[in-house]
Amino acid sequence: MYLKQAIARINNINWDKVGTKTSIENGNLGEEFLQRLANFYNEISIKKYPPLFSDIASLMGDNRELNFDEYYNDKTKRFLGRTMYQSKIVEYYLLNFPSRYFQTKPV
Fold it and tell me: Is the whole model's pTM more than 0.70, yes or no?
């Protein structure tokens, strides 16, 4: 259930406005991910990695390979295809959002 909600949230972002002055609401997803990432590193006390390399699920021992492309709408696919950084942030958000850690730790 959490994963479906997270994917719906990502697909509902107005990607055309990301990076503009009117994208504050759309930027909340990235802010939430980075806040949860910071909380995770502070509580777990392991070596900190930049967001591009912060696959928390993998750091916690979950090494499943998942592909979310089939769940993205066309606008999301185009936006995420621009750079690896954007794509990885969203991928790691989805990989970790349903985890027990993220479900029980508010931002």
Answer: no
